[in-house]
Amino acid sequence: APGQRLLCWEEVGKGQFLSRGTPGPEPVAPMGSSMEAPAMLEELPPGAAPGKGAHELFGYVGIEAVLDQMRVKTMKTGFEFNIMVVGQSGLGKSTMVNTLFKSKVSRKASQPGQEERIPKTVQLQSVTHVIEEKGVKMKLTVTDTPGFGDQINNENCWDPIIKYINEQYERYLREEILITRKRKIPDTRVHGCVYFVPPTGHWLRPLDLEFMRRLSKIVNVVPVIAKADTLTLEERAEFKQRIQQDLKAHAISVYPQEDFDEDPDDRLLNNVIREKIPFAVVGADQEHQVNGRRVTPGCTLTWVGALPTATSPQPALSCLAVENPMHCEFPMLRDLLIRSHLQDLKDITHNVHYESYRVRRLNESNRVALSPANGLPGKDEDDSNL
Amino acid sequence: MIEMFRQLLVSAVVFGFVFCAVRYFLDRATFSCRANRMFDSCSLHLFWQRVMDADYIYHKIYNICANLCVDCILYSTWEVLRACRDKWILLENDRLYFSLFQGEGCRTVPLSGHVGFDSLPDQLVNKSVNHGFCFNILCVGETGLGKSTLMDTLFNTKFEGDPASHSQPGVQLKSSTYDLQESNVNLKLTIVSTVGFGDQINKEDSYKPIVEFIDAQFEAYLQEELKIKRVLHNYHDTRIHACLYFIAPTGHSLKSLDLVTMKKLDSKVNIIPIIAKSDAISKSELTKFKIKITSELVSNGVQIYQFPTDDESVAEINGTMNAHLPFAVIGSTEELKIGNKMMKARQYPWGTVQVENEAHCDFVKLREMLIRVNMEDLREQTHTRHYELYRRCKLEEMGFKDTDPDSKPFSLQETYEAKRNEFLGELQKKEEAMRQMFVQRVKEKEAELKEAEKELHEKFDRLKKLHQDEKKKLEDKKKSLDDEVNAFKQRKTAAELLQSQAQQAGGSQTLKRDKERKN
């Protein structure tokens, strides 16, 4: 009839609502995976919420999908992780790193055939690798410090290391201050520093204390007891106690720092970790066979076990499996560094250490600019006008 | 004659073919560079750099040659180059994604076992969940288009607020923050709404408050970022992530107010245009309306937000949704019983419109796109594109530069020092000026006061004189009075003397009489 408009939802007609009342097939895929989304839109019954059955209808908005979006985005951009290993030569640093990442990522592996000579000063060598696991790409940079603590006079052997760490912060700061900055600033800051304590069994040496004191202020320091297969379990426990007392006495806060616990759950978890610090690790990256089973990684040690008898004339070989938590605490270290606290390491580096470096650096330039004639206060106000 | 014509035709065809081949080649070259990740070392990179520089020279030549008959050929080549240049700019932005995993001395190493860093995205997500998310939406549209209702429908809650009247003197922005929680995700949602948009008689300045508001949010973030002691990871981000522009359902075309406002906003915020109250438009009118709107937006150069199509998992759905822009939505918070379910709908005498029915309106599409698929992308675009643009403009305005004319990077210290000295100099000048003014005022006041003092002195003298005169007069009078009194006293004593003599005489007489009586 003239003067009557057909509105788009009139075509459906009244009768059809009732027949469409039965819901279509519910899609099985979880809400977040958007690959299913086109199918869901077609079959979407009027008013029903798709996805996980636990949600009540009409109450579901879909805000949680942002988690999946974030996950997809981070997997696309990839991650960066920079780790530094510090310790005297011969403590097994490179082996440890290889074991940690289950591939040949250390300096020695990248430059095979080079003569091992102790350098005269502390040098820093970084190697970068890209490793991928289940779609997650990580750019891993391992910085090694050959020559640390190897000289007769070890004064200021930590200076090159501190300089290197500050250089990385400086580089990041420069990129951040640019007017046209890059979309993603390349992050070369050291996220974690693993410090190898030689297994003397007594106390921390002055070199260790000095180093850890200075470095725990600018970077996350994780102390580990190297070559822990030379200590028995009791010696190990005593050594740890003494180290913890030492650290507390000198007010050295190693990772995980107590000041940065965010909530009570975190604190509980971190307290458990703090009781075990420093971890006693053994580095080994060779495969071995034990009773016909492959044990990877592990190392074979010849200890006098049972005396050779008539039936088994050879001396018993013992195999220390690195992955076995009864033998050494390597799994705990790996879990801490990679599986549970990697993001935390990066966050603390970015939010705490980098910020304090930035504060120091910007204050420095202020002090230089202020001439004694002026001496005007109010730096924050001035800078906020910048 | 025919021979010449044929030759001309053949040459024209050959030229056209060569031209198309060149254009195709340039297109492919740009894309294949990206695919092969050769971009860093590719000489094409330098080529485009030169093209960018030579851009304006080319434009000049174009203008000159435009008068000649080679006009159309140049125009097509220009268009091709321009299109390629745009693509290059986009690729330049994404270049870093690839160069992150390239570079010197970087190689891929195979893993011989399970290391465990595949839990990294989960760690990141857990941290974000603990931290909470924030999302800010700006609703721009005339009064009465259903902005608040749509927000209520979108988030399934009733946000408080009364409808605004039509008599607002100017455009204002009303912002409210809500804390929503769904399973374990906390969302801090801020909804900013325009009040009084499009109600005034003179709408020239209607867009200004909106632009100022958006700039103010960017400015706040920039200030926080530039501070020395800053707390960026706990900062409540108030920058607008998405702007929903409500278009009135006239069915014809965009209003000029809409065009002007969208043009001003498109470089500052992600604009998603939607047709409000779309139950007033029929289906055929709707398609025509949508086409008209998109063509008007394109011809006016308004850049609305395009859903991202570079990630395979969402490329397909985003691509289809891009074609449905602008979305025609209906908002309703009333629930009606239809069939055997309660659903959000609007009831009319001639039928019922269901909000979540795909066939009725695009509400479900809007919700999908805005919240479920692209929320993170909206936030990222705001931060990396719009905020960076604002920051760059603001810092350049303040005089910061990245490199010297000699392309040596300015040292941080130098820039800060220079700025600081300038600022201090200005401060000093202001202080001087103030001091001068102060001194002048003091002098003026002093002069005034001196005059007043003089006046007072004069007055005092006058009064004193008056006083003395009066005193003198009084003294004279007193003297005269005293004289009179003395005179009177004398007379009195004289009179008394006489009287006493008289009395004595009389008294002696009485004494005599008394004596006589006794005798």
UniProtKB/TrEMBL annotation, chain A:
<feature type="domain" description="Septin-type G">
    <location>
        <begin position="77"/>
        <end position="364"/>
    </location>
</feature>
<dbReference type="GO" id="GO:0051301">
    <property type="term" value="P:cell division"/>
</dbReference>
<keyword id="KW-0547">Nucleotide-binding</keyword>
<protein>
    <recommendedName>
        <fullName>Septin</fullName>
    </recommendedName>
</protein>
<dbReference type="Pfam" id="PF00735">
    <property type="entry name" value="Septin"/>
</dbReference>
<keyword id="KW-0963">Cytoplasm</keyword>
<dbReference type="InterPro" id="IPR016491">
    <property type="entry name" value="Septin"/>
</dbReference>
<dbReference type="InterPro" id="IPR027417">
    <property type="entry name" value="P-loop_NTPase"/>
</dbReference>
<dbReference type="GO" id="GO:0005525">
    <property type="term" value="F:GTP binding"/>
</dbReference>
<keyword id="KW-0206">Cytoskeleton</keyword>
<keyword id="KW-0342">GTP-binding</keyword>
<keyword id="KW-0131">Cell cycle</keyword>
<dbReference type="InterPro" id="IPR030379">
    <property type="entry name" value="G_SEPTIN_dom"/>
</dbReference>
<dbReference type="GO" id="GO:0005856">
    <property type="term" value="C:cytoskeleton"/>
</dbReference>
<keyword id="KW-0132">Cell division</keyword>
<comment type="similarity">
    <text>Belongs to the TRAFAC class TrmE-Era-EngA-EngB-Septin-like GTPase superfamily. Septin GTPase family.</text>
</comment>
TrEMBL record, chain B:
<dbReference type="InterPro" id="IPR016491">
    <property type="entry name" value="Septin"/>
</dbReference>
<keyword id="KW-0547">Nucleotide-binding</keyword>
<feature type="region of interest" description="Disordered">
    <location>
        <begin position="497"/>
        <end position="519"/>
    </location>
</feature>
<dbReference type="GO" id="GO:0005525">
    <property type="term" value="F:GTP binding"/>
</dbReference>
<feature type="compositionally biased region" description="Low complexity">
    <location>
        <begin position="497"/>
        <end position="509"/>
    </location>
</feature>
<dbReference type="InterPro" id="IPR027417">
    <property type="entry name" value="P-loop_NTPase"/>
</dbReference>
<dbReference type="Pfam" id="PF00735">
    <property type="entry name" value="Septin"/>
</dbReference>
<dbReference type="GO" id="GO:0005940">
    <property type="term" value="C:septin ring"/>
</dbReference>
<feature type="domain" description="Septin-type G">
    <location>
        <begin position="131"/>
        <end position="397"/>
    </location>
</feature>
<feature type="coiled-coil region">
    <location>
        <begin position="435"/>
        <end position="491"/>
    </location>
</feature>
<protein>
    <submittedName>
        <fullName>Septin 6</fullName>
    </submittedName>
</protein>
<keyword id="KW-0175">Coiled coil</keyword>
<dbReference type="GO" id="GO:0097227">
    <property type="term" value="C:sperm annulus"/>
</dbReference>
<dbReference type="GO" id="GO:0032154">
    <property type="term" value="C:cleavage furrow"/>
</dbReference>
<keyword id="KW-0342">GTP-binding</keyword>
<dbReference type="GO" id="GO:0008021">
    <property type="term" value="C:synaptic vesicle"/>
</dbReference>
<dbReference type="GO" id="GO:0031105">
    <property type="term" value="C:septin complex"/>
</dbReference>
<comment type="similarity">
    <text>Belongs to the TRAFAC class TrmE-Era-EngA-EngB-Septin-like GTPase superfamily. Septin GTPase family.</text>
</comment>
<dbReference type="GO" id="GO:0043679">
    <property type="term" value="C:axon terminus"/>
</dbReference>
<dbReference type="GO" id="GO:0032173">
    <property type="term" value="C:septin collar"/>
</dbReference>
<dbReference type="InterPro" id="IPR030379">
    <property type="entry name" value="G_SEPTIN_dom"/>
</dbReference>
